[in-house]
Design brief:
mainly alpha, about 70% helix, single chain
C-alpha cells in the first residue's frame, strides 16, 4: 500500500506542474499531511500488522492522494483541454475521495491508541459514523455531473456542483453546514 501511495505521489509530481498554478502554500500543507499520515501508517503497519491503526492511517493517505490526483487531472482535462483527455470523467469521480479520508481519520481517533474501541457502547456510534450519509453524497453528486454532462471544474480542480450544489443536490450544502 505504501508503494502504491508513492507511485500516486509521483503522478502528482508530474501532473501538478501541468496545472500552471505553481507551488502554493496549500500544496506544501498537503504534502506534509500525506507524509505525516503515510509515514506513521507505514511504521505501525510494518511493526504491528494486526493493529488496524496503521492500515487506517494508510487508508487516509491513499484517499487524500487519490483526491488530489483526481483534482489535478480534472483541472488539466476540463480547464486546460476542454474535456478532451481520456478518463477525465474518472478524475471527477475520484476527486471526492477526501470524504472517505475524513471518515478514516475520525476512525483513527476512535481506535486510538491500540486499535480497539475503548468501550462496547462505542460500537453503535462507530457504525453510525462509518455509515454517514454525506460520505456517499459527494460521490453521488460527482456521478450525476458526469452522467448529465454538467462537469464544470473550478480553479482548484474541484467540481463546482460540490461547492455550490443546486436542485436535487442542494441537500449537500445543508449537510455540510451542520
Amino acid at each position: 500500500m505504501g508503494v502504491l501511495i508513492v507511485v500516486m505521489l509521483a503522478g502528482l509530481g508530474v501532473g501538478g506542474p501541468a496545472e500552471h498554478r505553481g507551488l502554493q502554500l496549500s500544496r506544501l500543507g498537503e504534502i506534509a499531511l500525506f507524509l505525516g499520515f503515510g509515514l506513521v501508517g507505514v511504521i505501525v503497519a510494518w511493526h504491528q500488522p494486526r493493529n488496524p491503526m496503521g492500515w487506517v492511517l494508510l487508508g487516509v493517505t491513499f484517499f487524500l492522494v487519490l483526491s488530489s490526483l483526481g483534482s489535478v487531472y480534472a483541472y488539466v482535462d476540463y480547464r486546460l483541454h476542454g474535456g478532451r483527455l481520456p478518463l477525465g470523467w474518472l478524475a471527477v469521480l475520484v476527486d471526492p475521495s477526501w470524504a472517505p479520508a475524513i471518515v478514516l481519520a475520525g476512525l483513527a481517533v476512535m481506535l486510538f491508541p491500540d486499535g480497539r474501541i475503548l468501550a462496547s457502547w462505542w460500537r453503535p456510534t462507530l457504525w453510525a459514523y462509518l455509515g454517514a450519509l454525506w460520505l456517499g453524497g459527494a460521490f453521488a453528486i460527482s456521478l450525476g455531473a458526469v452522467i448529465g454532462h454538467h462537469v464544470i471544474i473550478d480553479s482548484s480542480g474541484g467540481l463546482t456542483s460540490l461547492d455550490n450544489p443546486t436542485g436535487s443536490s442542494a441537500w449537500w450544502a445543508c449537510s455540510r453546514e451542520h
